[in-house]
Design goal:
Blueprint (H helix, E strand, L loop, with lengths): L2 H10 L4 H14 L4 H10 L4 H12 L7 H6 L6 H13 L6 H7 L5 H13 L6
């Protein structure tokens, strides 16, 4: 991971909201440039659902199609919070090709994931089969 992003990702967890917000905004501003580091953050944060959530959210905001397979993979995350965010990130990325993956999440055990998947499908104009 590049040092700039290692520092920014560490700051995402800072107790000072100004510092954590500034770090979030810096990564957000970089969009696709940060994508490889966001992927690494997601993969290395097995024990930290909050960092996985933020990584998926920022990937969704990247407006970079390279993020789509990474976000689709996050639909399998053990955390419902992260799976729901992956559904929303797919909508942000306008990744209609992920409809089948969203269909599977529309029947998730967690209500927040089901809701997010169904809302994204509806936003794409796709009816459940």
């Amino acid at each position: 991971m590049r040092p700039r992003y290692a520092d920014l990702f560490a700051a995402l967890k800072d107790e000072d909201p100004h510092r954590s917000d500034a770090a979030y905004d810096a990564v957000l501003f970089d969009r696709g440039e940060a994508l490889p580091d966001l992927e690494e953050l997601y993969q290395n944060s097995v024990a930290d659902e909050d960092l996985r959530f933020l990584a998926v959210q920022l990937m969704g905001f990247s407006e970079d199609s390279r993020a789509v397979p990474l976000v689709v993979a996050a639909l399998q995350d053990p955390s419902p919070k992260v799976r729901a965010e992956a559904c929303r990130a797919i909508e942000d990325l306008r990744a209609r090709d992920a409809a089948d993956d969203l269909m599977a999440r529309a029947d998730d055990m967690d209500v927040s994931v089901r809701r997010a998947a169904r809302e994204t499908l509806a936003a794409f104009g796709i009816r459940r089969r």
